Amino acid sequence: MDFLSWYDWITPTNPFASIFFGIIFTIIGGITVWVNTKRLKTVLVTAITGIAVTGIGVAILNTIGFYA
User: Which ranges does the record mark as transmembrane (predicted)?
Assistant: First the structure.
């Protein structure tokens, strides 16, 4: 079983790919927020929210059998 495929950024095929790309997009969002606001608190809120949404989303998708 491969951990990542070239098309996983479109539709993740396993939980690892979802978490990986979720964190990548969270980092991109954090950098964008930093460039626009220069406030560390805002960047931390963005990062924590992104990681939480990624984790909850992966858990829900795994529970309903999306990755099976």
Answer: 16-35, 42-67
Tell me if 46 is assigned to some domain.
yes
Number of domains in the chain: 1
Tokens found for residue 66: 């999306």
Q: Which domain holds residue 32?
A: 15-64
**Residue 4 is assigned to a structural domain of this protein:** no
Residue-wise pLDDT tens digits, 8-37:
888 999 999 999 999 999 999 999 999 999
And the tokens for 10?
A: 């479109």
Burial 18-48 (b: 16+ CB within 10 A, else e): bbbbbeeebeeebeebeeeeeeeeebeebbe
